[in-house]
Every structure is written in C-alpha cells, then in structure tokens.
Amino acid sequence: MSESVKRSIWVYHLNTGGCNACDIEVLDALTPWFDAERFGVKLVPSPRQADVLLLTGPVTIEALPKVVNAIEAMPRPRYIVALGSCGVGGGIWHDTYSTIGGVRELLKILEARGVKVDGVYYVPGCPVRPESILYAIALFKGLVEKKVKSEVAYSD
After folding, report:
1. Ranges for the NADH:ubiquinone oxidoreductase-like 20kDa subunit domain (predicted)?
2. Contacting residues for 28 by C-beta, under 8 A, at least 6 apart
3. At the N or C end, where does the chain have fewer CB atoms within 10 A?
4. 38-70 burial code (b ≥16 CB/10 A, e <16)
5. Which pLDDT score, from 0 to 100, does residue 48 have?
6. Quick check: 4 pLDDT over 80?
7. How many CB atoms are located within 10 Å of the residue 114 CB?
8. What is the mean pLDDT of the chain?
9. DSSP string, 81-130
10. DSSP designation for 75
11. Residue 127 placed within a domain
12. Residues 6+ apart with CB under 8 A from 118
C-alpha cells in the first residue's frame, strides 16, 4: 500500500504499443458493472495530474521517449501499474528489434536518467481481466493482502 496516496487514485492510462486488448479491459473496469470508481479511481487527461500510470503494451522504441516524458511529468510519489503480459514483460514481443520489452527494462532506463519511481505493481494476464485490475487497486489501497509471495526469477 502506498501510504502517500490515501485519497482517490488519479490514473493516467498509457498504451506503449500493445494490441489494445488490455485497454478495452481497463475501460471495462471503469464501467458501472465493475465500478472501479467506487475505490476512488479517476482517469485524468494528463500525466501531470496522475498518481498512477497504467501501462499497457510492450514499450516500443518509437514510444520510449514519450513514455519517459510522461513518467517524468508525473508528480512524486509516482507509481506504475504494468498491465498484461506485454506491460509486465514484453509479451511475445519481449525480444524483438522494435521493443525494449516490458516495464523492467523501462525501469532500468528511468534509473539511468535519474527518474525515481516509487512503486511498481504487476498485473499479469493476456488480456488482463477487469477483476485483476480491481484487485490491483484494492492491493494498492491496502484493502487486501497479497495472495502470493513476490519472488520472481529472471533469466538474463
């Protein structure tokens, strides 16, 4: 839980080159059926107003400068929620010439530029389900406990 974000969560949604399946699920999570707004989630038109960046899709080389600019424009504390297989690890495009992969590679680039990210949440799935997005929101707000321990093994 982010202690610094106790109020409503203002979210900026950024597709970094995905197929739009996760984008559709984000919109579905905001419909009255799933009603993410009951947790105080509000989509904002600019990263300058956002607490959380919802990142969908693998980060393409074309989108990389715009993604970095958007994250730099966010006020601190800033959080990233990587949605879907592509946002988390690059999906099936993780090792192609036109992408850098998922949020893990993006964090390395941000660290090299001196841009601090206060927290990253990972929501797997292809596409990610609206229930998973709601669970991530509840986890972020401290309403639920983690279901699994966070041990991730990477092969470099």
Report:
1. 19-138
2. 34, 130
3. C
4. eeebeeeeebeebbbbbbbbbbbeebbeebbeb
5. 94
6. no
7. 7
8. 87
9. EEEHHHHHH-GGGTTSTTEEESHHHHHHHHHHHT----EEEEE--TTPPH
10. P
11. yes
12. 2, 4, 76, 77, 78, 79
What token pair was written down for 7? 């109020």
Report residue 60 as tokens: 């393409």
Which residues form the domain of 70? 3-141
Residue 148 lies in a domain: no
- Asked whether the predicted pLDDT for residue 149 surpasses 80, the reply is no
Q: Is the dihedral of CA 34, 38, 39, 42 positive or negative?
A: positive
Q: Cα(74)–Cα(36) distance, rounded to whole angstroms?
A: 22
The CATH number for 75's domain is: 3.40.50.12280
* Type of residue numbered 7: R
Task: Name the DSSP letter for residue 18.
Answer: -
Give Cα 6 to chain centroid, integer Å.
19
